[in-house]
Amino acid sequence: MSDPKSLRLETPDHFTAGTIGPPGQRVFYLQSRERNTLLTVKVEKEQVRALGDYMAGLLAQLPAPAGARPADLTLLEPISPAFVVGSIAVGYDKDRDRMVVEIEEQQEEEDSTAEAAAARIFITRAQAAAFVERARELMQSGRPLCPMCSQPKDPEGHICPRSNGHAPGHVPAEP
């Protein structure tokens, strides 16, 4: 990043989310590039899901995106996060016909006096539509969810809190 505390990407040519690691241990990233500036930030899975869902809702209220959707949405090297995202905000700039994604660094309580790093990224509707598809793909490629508690199931097994620690469908014997 040019300024470690604030960055604006006005016309990025790349905007994506991606992961590194196997399901259950994946680390999620958002990434955007404009010319020689590559911004990579670490995010939570639910932040990617929420961003994709929110963008899908915004896109549904706008005309269909013009132009081709980006085809390559893989993470670009080097994958070196500038910061961990605490908050994400999304808006639509009607005059520029761009979605605006604002991300802000997560701050520790003891660092509350320090200025948080932030970025404002202006993406096209076509980039947003491609991001929505990418976010959905990432969510589907994760661990399967338990039908009872909606929590991810680990390959080693799953103790469902809704079944009091028993396998789904198992009824404990009466004492």
Strand residue percentage: 25-35%
Order of SSEs, N→C? EEEEHEEEH
Lateral strand order in the biggest sheet: 1-7-6-5
CATH architecture of the largest domain: 2-Layer Sandwich
Which descriptor suits the 3D outline? Answer: globular
Could you explain how this protein is built, in words?
The protein has 175 residues and is an alpha+beta fold. It folds into two domains: 6-142, Secreted effector protein pipB2 fold (2-Layer Sandwich), CATH 3.30.2450; 144-175, no CATH class. The chain has two helices and seven strands, in the order E-E-E-E-H-E-E-E-H. The chain has helices spanning 45-60, 125-140, and strands spanning 6-9, 14-20, 27-34, 37-43, 85-93, 98-105, 118-123. The strands form two sheets. The chain has a four-stranded mixed beta sheet with strand order 1-7-6-5. Strands 2-3-4 form a three-stranded antiparallel beta sheet. It is globular and about 55 Å long. The termini are far apart.
Structure summary:
With 175 residues, this protein is an alpha+beta fold. Helix content is 18%, strand content 28%.
How would you describe this structure in keywords?
Secreted effector protein pipB2 fold, 175 residues, four-stranded mixed beta sheet, alpha+beta, disordered C terminus
